[in-house]
Amino acid sequence: MSEHQNGNGAPPGGPQDPKPAEAAPAQAEQPPLTREELERKVAQLSAMLEESMSRARETQERLKDTHERLLRVAAEFDNFKKRATKEREDAQKFGIERLLRDFLPVADNLERALDHAEEHDLRQVIEGVKLVQKLLETTLAKHGVTGFSALGQPFDPNLHEALMQQESDAPAGTVVSEMSRGYKLNERLVRPAAVVVARPRSAAAPAGAGPDGSAPSGDGK
Questions:
Q1: Of 30, 54, 145, 175, which sees the most CB atoms within 10 A?
Q2: Rounded to whole angstroms, how far apart are CA atoms 204 and 210?
């Protein structure tokens, strides 16, 4: 008996023909560049390199200019600090020069008054000293320095310095004596007034009391 065949004449169960493999796409080969194309590429790359170098040179110039400006600013700042230091030192040394020039006439007049004190009447000397005092007050006021009196005023710890207390008929806490005047510079206190402040009088000791205020003994001894 003959073997059965399938419809295409192949024996059943026999090996089938494999499918043909798909062909891989062929790689397109780049044609070599021509001389003109190479020259164009070289020229393009050269132009790009030149532009990059030009930008680098510009950046370097800007950095150099910025560096020089910073050096100049640093030098100017250093000079400014030196000038400020010198001006501060000069102000400390010579800040009262104008004040001193204004006070020299006061010192001159006081010296002349003392030199002629023995040659003139006492009243004339007193009048001369009063004129010097007036000149002194005028000079102080010119520079914003004003004196104030505390006599007869209530004691103010912000303006007065109490040196002592004194029994007085004046109200307690009233300034009854002034040792030295107070002074202000443009309304700022420079020196408080040195004052004596009133306090109530102590109770009077009884008649015949001893030195310590005790009553005399009954036997008279």
A1: 175
A2: 12
pTM above 0.70, yes or no: no
Question: What is d(CA 192, CA 172) in angstroms, rounded to the nearest whole number?
Answer: 20
Within 10 angstroms of residue 184's Cβ, the number of other Cβ atoms is: 15
| End-to-end Cα separation, the chain, in angstroms | 185
Q: How far apart are CA 79 and CA 88, in angstroms?
A: 14
- The label of the residue with tokens 């399938």 reads 6
Helix-strand-coil percent breakdown of the chain, rounded to 5? Answer: 45, 15, 40
Task: For tokens 């004129």, name the residue.
Answer: 131
CA-closest candidate to residue 146, choices 181, 183, 179: 183
- Tell me what pLDDT residue 40 has: 86
CB proximity list for 85: less than 8 A, separation 6 or greater: none
Rounded Cα gap, residues 160 and 167, in angstroms: 18
Distance CA 31, CA 186 (A): 99
Residue 161 pLDDT class (50, 70, 90 cuts): very high
Closest CA relative to residue 191, chosen from 176, 209, 199, 179: 179
Mean predicted lDDT score pLDDT of the chain: 81
